[in-house]
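quick one before i forget lol
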Amino acid sequence: MSELLKIRRQTQVERRAESEQRLLTAAAELIATEGFAAASLERVGATAGYSRGLASQKFGSKDGLVTAVIAAVIARSAELLVARDSDSASPLDSIIAYADVILLQIERDPFIRAYWVMMASAIANRLPNQTQFLAEHEKVKARLSGLITQGQDRGEIDSSVDPDAAALSIGSTLLGIGIECLLDPALDIPRVRAAALATISRTLAASTKV
């Protein structure tokens, strides 16, 4: 393959990646600020600065757009966790890091706010794609439950804690804060974030009493 052809192909890949990111960003901002119904594929394309049909070509349908935004939220969370080197932390620290990343995203990132709006819309309207959100939440619950079990094995997390129930409780706390933020944009998220992290830590930490 000639160098010129390689450059052209790389440029095409870069252009596709850029257009997809711009479309996803436009979708997230529309959904977060105006609601799920406002983010038609045509409007997403126009808001991103492309032809109105490009979003349809990229995502195929509104359900396809939902799937893409969910994937983007998960990828962004994973990148933030990697940046914090959470995999090398203790189980309890990894749980706190995960909760902190989600809460920071709620505070700063329109993508996760769009996620909550889409989920609320799916539940309120009994849409079939609510199963996508349930599936992702089950993955998070399994991950947190596994970390809790690991922490119990190490003596770091209270052995009386029910891993599955505690994992669900942590996820529900983060979910509730996200929904509350949508209801009250003036919510003092840093204050709530600090309280939530302290509560999770106190709930899970093994007793130091002798």
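fyi The longest helix spans residues 3-34.
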